[in-house]
Write a structure and sequence with these properties.
There is one protein chain. By secondary structure, this protein is an alpha+beta fold. It folds into 3 domains: 53 residues; 64 residues, no CATH class; 60 residues, no CATH class. The protein has 3 helices and 7 strands; from the N terminus they run ααββαβββββ. The strands form 2 sheets. Strands 3, 4, 5, 6 and 7 form a 5-stranded antiparallel β-sheet that branches. The protein starts with a helix and ends with a strand. The relative contact order is 0.12.
Length: 185
Amino acid sequence: MDTALIKEIQIQKKFATATYKNFVALRYGMIPCCVVDAEAAALEKELCDWQSKLKCETSCVGVTVNENVGYLTSTPYVDQPKVSQTSSASCPSVTYCPDNSVLENILTSIKEIQTELNKKIVDGFVFTQETVSTEWIIPHNLDKYPNIRMEMPDGTDINGQVTNIDVNNMKVNFDVPVAGTAYLS
């Protein structure tokens, strides 16, 4: 098997392990015994992802024909024959392509996506009850009867009697006074 591919798989595995350990630490409070630098693993993974996607070879220089691919237009290229690698690089080597139109189109597409995301209506609401109470009044203004999940400050799920007052307000009653957070969607 290609050594560059093995190295890339190891980087992906290291990132997955770091992400899982971070999740377990945040969700369950279980600090891992072995320290894994999650930030370094994420950077290595992003670099590998970027390098594996950037396959533009020197054959694209001087080509002026553009092909439309989704929102992006890109300059076509011809894959070069594979060359065995003996270096200990973390990822396959990348050839720089001086065609700036690809980058400009990607940036334009990102701006379009951000604009679309900003137009989206928020479809969720988080309510926090700071003081203990047997009744929570939740003004969510979602203009619907939402689903609700509640938890105590320590993360333990709790259940209560949910009553929808109207499409923008709800009430939750508990047998004992509790504080916590309600997630509405």
